[in-house]
Amino acid sequence: MLQRGWMVAAAVGVVLTAGAGWAWLQDRAGQESVAGQAGDGWGMIRSGVGTDGQAAADGNAQGAPMSAAQVRHKLFKEGSFAGTEPHGEWCVRGEALQPCAGLRGRFEYYLLAIGEVPMSAIRTLVADEAERDVGAKLAGDVMGIWDRYLQVRSYKPRTAFQQEQLHTWMPVLADLRAQRRQVLGDEWAKAFYADEEANFERMYAQIQSGMPPPPDPGEPVPQMAPGKDPAAVHAERVARYGPEAAARLAKVDEEWADWERRLSAARKEWDRLQASAGLSDVQRRQQMAGYVEQHFKDEEHLRVQALLKL
User: Fold this and answer.
1) Please, where are the H alpha helices in 112-229?
2) How confident is the model over 225-277, as pLDDT tens digits?
3) Contact 225, 73 (CB under 8 A)
4) Torsional sign, CA 120, 121, 126, 128
5) What angle, 0 to 180 degrees and rounded to 10, lies between the N-to-C axes of helices 101-111 and 119-134?
6) For residues 194 and 188, is the Cβ–Cβ distance under 8 A?
7) Which of 132, 212, 216, 252 has its CA 20 to 30 A from that of 199?
């Protein structure tokens, strides 16, 4: 399940001027790692996470290349993308591609499929989806940025970053910044990374000034759970992320609880309809479709259908 973590990543990332929190829609456990990447600046030095070894795995893969239709079915019907919609945008303005952070978000959405299908299959899907949405010419431009973005994403800085050694911080930033602008060009590099790089510089200045360092991005986001004191959880979130992010996380908790309640009720309704001997299969599905229409937003329908196997 992919939904909760994106809500959490967005909640923290919007406040912290997120640059790396693209991991859309992880489940409750998954959000613990996502929120740490949501834009506190640490993502700047982790841009290649998740791609190591993928090219080798592709090279060792057997069988014919997957078509776009096969990849789409594998991910959206059988895999982790079921019931989701792509994050971000293609950044098309008029008749041209214009630099904007939304394209990085769109790329990172598809890159969540790493491990489910080969990288070559992900590229096939991205190219096909782009062509369907913006046409062949602009899709070609998109894929040019895609290839350069993957090159940037997998780059390893020449200076090893050591969190406890401040003298390593700025050389790593300078190396990454130069490589990004060399590969992507100045405008695209700024669109994709400017906020993230600025946030990293602010963290560096914060520590240099003697203030406490930011929280370890590996630490889980404090969660509401049975038996936990909500006030204590909120206080910990405020201390770690600030009051605005804590308020957004509280809103995510409310939205998630509402989703869980409605989904549970829908599951019970589907069980009831399936047990109704007086209804045909067509009637059961018609009534359930009406129930989903009444209790869920349009953008939630596919996800409900996938989770309940309607």
Assistant:
1) 119-134, 136-153, 169-184, 186-208
2) 777 788 888 888 887 778 888 888 889 889 988 999 999 999 999 999 999 99
3) no
4) positive
5) 130
6) no
7) 252
The residue with tokens 């019907």 is 77
Pick from 111, 70, 63: which is nearest to 88 by CA? 111
Domain ranges of the chain: 3-208, 232-308
Burial class (CB in 10 A: 0-12, 13-18, 19+), 151: middle
Give strand ranges (E) for 42-95: 92-93
Determine contact, residues 145/100, Cβ cutoff 8 Å. Answer: no
Q: The whole model's pTM is what?
A: 0.61
Kindly tell me the burial class for residue 18, based on how many C-beta atoms sit within 10 Å of its own C-beta (0-12, 13-18, 19 or more): buried
Three-class SS state of 92: strand
Provide the CA 244 distance to its chain's centre, in angstroms: 21
Centre a 10 Å sphere on the Cβ of residue 141 and count the other Cβ atoms it contains: 16
Instruction: Name the token pair of 55.
Output: 């090219």
Residue pLDDT, tens place only, 1-35: 444 444 444 444 443 433 333 332 333 223 333 33
